């Protein structure tokens, strides 16, 4: 399994767990914690994606010779 596919599954898992946690907390009347759980999930996914955005930026600058 390539690292990219592993990260896609990791993003899916974080999103799935954050969605379930958000639903459970919202149904139990703790909407504040539900929003925090969603925010933490978003930050976790963003931390995974930042590396790929950096790689994409470097590829674009090297293709168009912007350095």
From TrEMBL:
<dbReference type="InterPro" id="IPR009570">
    <property type="entry name" value="Spore_III_AC"/>
</dbReference>
<dbReference type="InterPro" id="IPR025664">
    <property type="entry name" value="Spore_III_AC/AD"/>
</dbReference>
<feature type="transmembrane region" description="Helical">
    <location>
        <begin position="33"/>
        <end position="53"/>
    </location>
</feature>
<dbReference type="Pfam" id="PF06686">
    <property type="entry name" value="SpoIIIAC"/>
</dbReference>
<keyword id="KW-1133">Transmembrane helix</keyword>
<keyword id="KW-0472">Membrane</keyword>
<keyword id="KW-0812">Transmembrane</keyword>
<protein>
    <submittedName>
        <fullName>Stage III sporulation protein AC</fullName>
    </submittedName>
</protein>
<feature type="transmembrane region" description="Helical">
    <location>
        <begin position="7"/>
        <end position="27"/>
    </location>
</feature>
